[in-house]
Fold this protein.
Amino acid sequence: MSSPPSFHLFERYGVELEYMIVDSETLGVKPITDEVLKLVAGKYTNEVERGLVTWSNELVLHVIELKSTAPLESIDAVHSEYQKNVRDINDLLEPMGARLMPTAMHPWMDPFSHTRLWPHDNNEIYDAFNKIFDCRGHGWSNLQSVHLNLPFANDEEFARLHAAIRFLMPIMPALAASSPIMDTRATGLLDNRMDVYRSNCKRIPSVTGLVIPEPVFSPEEYQEVILQQMYREIAPFDPDAILQDEWLNARGAIARFDRNTIEVRVLDVQECPAADLAVVHAITGVLRGLCEEQWLSHEAQRAFDTQTLHEILMRVIRDGENARIGLQEYAAALEMDVSATVGSLWRKLVNESAPFRTNVAPEVSAALDALLTHGTLSGRILRSLDREYSRSNIAGVYRDLCDCLAQGQLYKA
């Protein structure tokens, strides 16, 4: 078995964007991802390489993923490649009466009647998940996210990166929340995807934990505390050991020792790739600052316990950028007042991490400025709906969001 590639911190990036396929007229989910991939490959397959970007399947047939084919040396202008692939997919979907829809949740999908699982390659994995967890719920079949993969070259780099990601994770949804509507209603949460995600494996609690990973900072400790515990708990439900792998881990960030990366999973997908890459730029810039101990030491980052970080995360899932920091130790570490909003904290962190963001494409820079000024996509969606949650009003807003994705434009409330 060959060793995984060894890239140092922030030498490479992996970016994955997930989108819904919906009917062009009704905007209902349309389970035809396998047919889209077949059009390009000439047969049913689970992925198709398209240069820098690869198209691939996900658990359900109405979701398609665009992911970097190989680790990216830079994310400065990669949004244009993702946008080109969005256009290519929409061109294929148009004769099929379908189009791509952004945001992290479909606003009225009924997962118990509309879910169709992927039936082709690797379907034994999906079947195993379905038998144990019942993948018809929102937390399995109605959520689209951005996955950010960051490398580490050795144990010391793993420790630094894992500590930084744990520390920053509770406030990441204050940038990325895009799922305020579920079951045709505003639930009072700005990030419904994260709320349903955190409980989708509740039958076996160790699979997701508290979303925030436990404070473990070596591969050996990670294996013992997180992975082996998870494997033991699922074993009675998985007699053929189909799911006994690192990707079973459903925390908000998971270590992939098979490729020496940590994969961040708490980011809702935005209205267009430029907005997604704006979020990625902001987060990677701040993570670099944390790894280099710009605001607080590595030891101080490690000292924050999982329960405390989880409490911050829950406030941010509810209130997004309007959530109060609420924890004196966290606020003090970043030189903020405890009553300050997480949105104001992000503006400070992005400004102070600016040296780590070089040659950012103008479209991405503009998207980041808009995000920091006007708030999350969730907030903008709610302002557009103006408390009118009829199916027709919601459909109008989400049709505009489909247009934003197709044209590579930001959504303005």
